[in-house]
UniProtKB/TrEMBL annotation:
Its cofactor is Cu(2+). It comes from the Eukaryota. It comes from Apiospora phragmitis. The keyword Protease does not apply. Belongs to the polysaccharide monooxygenase AA13 family. This is Chitin-binding type-4 domain-containing protein. Residues 18-193 form the Chitin-binding type-4 domain. Pfam families: LPMO_10. Residues 1-17 form the signal peptide.
């Protein structure tokens, strides 16, 4: 809808940018991600780390894309693989407060959350650490420069009951997931972390 009102140059940029976790350091694409997801998927994510997931399956489906559905797991961290991020693992303590900063570049009002995800099961552990049911990244707020600060700079508390589930690097990610309800696009960023077994 909005794009109809925008000049061509701005229209081109709407394809380019939406949002990502700027801090802590997020999972990046590299050779392992290319081996799992194919070069076109990973190049697209690398060219624009704010891109939406829905644009990727079409690239993956193209003949000769090098995409392996079972290895890539496109809906988890946009298919970016832990093996490319072993140097980027955050070490947290149970109960620790972790500051998260989101870079929003193009708004699409919707819902969002940050969760601990068990990567092997591709399932959230427990409840989201924080969530917004609606009104996240609202266009009117954004263009009025009134995006609520707590949507883009907030703290989450690392659960105390993870046991040893996240003791091994790669076993868990902190995943930020925002869905723009009007745009029907999902944005995801993952942070690799460990929490030492509590007993
Ligand atoms: C995302 O991409 C922007 C623009 O290329 C870059 O400045 C930024 O460092 C990247 N951040 C992450 C977390 O990948
Ligand atoms: C996050 O936690 C830190 C340390 O407790 C605190 O200084 C900071 O103000 C908090 N930030 C937000 C946005 O609540
Ligand atoms: C987290 O947000 C995503 C995107 O809106 C949504 O699909 C998912 O159901 C949410 N997860 C939970 C546990 O609420």
């Amino acid at each position: 809808m909005l794009s109809r009102l925008l000049p061509i140059a701005a229209l081109a940029s709407t394809a380019l940018a939406h949002g990502y976790i700027a801090s802590p350091p997020a999972r990046q694409g590299g050779d392992a991600s290319i081996a799992a997801c194919g070069r076109s998927v990973v190049d697209t994510v690398r060219a624009d780390n704010t891109s939406h997931v829905e644009g990727l399956p079409e690239l993956a489906a193209a003949a000769g894309s090098g995409y392996h559905a079972d290895l890539c797991n496109l809906w988890l961290c946009k298919g970016l693989q832990f093996a490319d991020n072993v140097a980027n693992v955050q070490s947290y303590k149970p109960g620790q407060s972790v500051n998260i900063q989101i870079k929003l570049t193009i708004p699409h009002t919707g819902n969002a959350n940050v969760s601990v995800v068990d990567t092997a099961a591709n399932a959230i552990i427990g409840e989201p650490l924080i969530s917004w049911d609606k009104g996240y990244a609202d266009e009117r707020d954004f263009y009025a420069k009134k995006t609520p600060k707590d949507q883009v700079n907030f703290n989450v508390t690392i659960p105390e009951d993870l046991g040893d589930k996240c003791a091994t690097a790669g076993a868990c990610v902190l995943q930020w997931w925002w869905y723009g309800t009007g745009a029907r696009q999902s944005y995801e960023t993952c942070v690799d972390f460990t929490v030492a077994a509590s007993s």
